[in-house]
Specification:
This protein folds into 2 domains: about 140 residues, ATPase, nucleotide binding domain (Nucleotidyltransferase, domain 5); about 150 residues, 2-Layer Sandwich (Nucleotidyltransferase, domain 5), CATH 3.30.420.40. It has a 5-stranded mixed beta sheet. Strands 8-7-6-9-10 form a 5-stranded mixed beta sheet, sandwiched between helices. It has about 300 residues and is an alpha/beta fold. The longest helix has 19 residues. The model has no long low-confidence stretch (mean pLDDT about 90). It is globular, with a radius of gyration of 20 Å. Helices cover about 50% and strands about 20% of the residues.
Length: about 300
Amino acid sequence: MDLVVGVDAGGTTSRAVVATLAGAVVGRGRAGPGNLFAAGPSAAASIADALRQALSGVDPRAVAGGVLGLAGSGVCADPAITAALGAAWESAGLNCPRTVVGDAITAFAGGTSAPSGAVVIAGTGAVAARIENHSIVRVADGLGWLLGDEGSGHWLGMRALRAAVHSWPSPFAAVVAEQTGVGDRDQLILWAQGLPHARIAALAPVVCHLARAGDPHAATIVSEAVRALTATLDAVSPGGVVVLAGGLLTAETPVRDGLLAVLNQRGYPVLTSGDPAAAAAWLAVRELPGTDAETAHTALLAAA
């Protein structure tokens, strides 16, 4: 019983990590979307697939415990989803205890071993949370594309579409149209009505690239995203370290640059989150008695 499992089940990808109690990774797995809130019980199949990959060549009986970081983890109150998650665990050959936490917990742990602080995530969606003793005590946004997720990749994509149809035929609109494969404004409007969510979110890198190049429409969208993410973080009354997570804030993007400038001006210590599946594995190590959590965190996440 000298191994742990960590899972990050997000809206785009499910990842699993198997590690020793000292923090050495011995297996990794990757599968499709695992967001139980968005996809329901069927997302558990992706989690199971990632787990089986990570456990390839490993005796599941050697796993002492696991932590699953789930987007939409609150839906585990649904008995059908709880049953599907248990079936996924068992299908991978695991019978050890498991703990389910929100993905804000794993994102925060991906940046620091500190027990308390704040995390702001901007990937496909966006959310901020205040963390105390590795538990969420306050949360802002994370409301999904229809009601919130302000400053997220999907939000940037939607703003790009709106700017394109309103500024047609601007150079910005031409780039957006090319990315979506349409030839005119009416086709772009029709394309957007289908709500191809993944392709809308995929416009975020285009917006970031154009903002870097000085396009005024893209620069305005990025500035709005920074203001929105700042307001979301302010809503959780951050104190101590702030961890940045999600693709828009861990990669070199103008959104990250803008938010960093705000946080640095305010004097917040800022860290960048690493692999959330590895962070989930670290949280599993931390739950076991007699382990050196600090050493394990360095081994699992310092490189990331």
